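Here is one such tokenized protein:
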Amino acid sequence: MLQQPFFLPPLFVPNSLNTPSIHLIFAEKDHMENPALMSLLRQTNGEKRSKAKTILRMFKLFPLLSSGCKMVALLGRPHKGLLTNKSTTTGTLFGYRRGKVCLTIQDDPKCIPAFVIELPIHTNTLHKEMATGLVRIALESETKTSKKKLLEEYVWAVYCNGHKAGYSIRRKQTSEDELHVMQLLRGVSMGAGVLPCPSEKESLMDGELTYIRGRFEKVVGSKDSEAFYMINPDGTSGPELSIFFVRGQ
């Protein structure tokens, strides 16, 4: 007996081969009779999987950014629903007016800093950037594979508002000047101003010792990416300061 040809009712004939149930019907009835159709179906499914993978990669925010410069260009304050492991921490930027800026990160103002680094950014330059109302500092470790925690990396490429400033090395130990600042700010949770210098000689050579301290929302995107967003006090408007850390992919 001759096999009756199989046809779909016109109502169910799709414009494109994207409906899973239609795929199943075609696969069961025509896979031996129409190899060209099966090839088209495999190609269509492959394109769908490729598009799905692309969309998934788009939502892995931080790993997409291969450099600090790209990170500053692409990242604002991401939608909170897409990120995990949020917490708050204390961040301080300080330095002599004619010197470079130091960055410290502490779990609490009374704790020894967990991260200390002198940035290749002059204090006067940072003040000018702060005056614009938007400062984004990005630090990128070029290490490809590492078992260290992200903030335990030593060498960092530093970017400020999209411009590469140079390289810095994280301090293994806090210096006396940095401990002096931490002690003076022990009871300060947020603020900005001028601090007494450890010695009059340093004040004459390098100018005033200034600082900016704030509470930061810490957001962990992955083991290779973290971001810190400064929290302005309720009801006040101030400069938007964000600090990003990323490890090379």
Q: What stands out?
A: The helical segments are 20-30, 35-58, 68-74, 123-131, 176-184, 200-206.
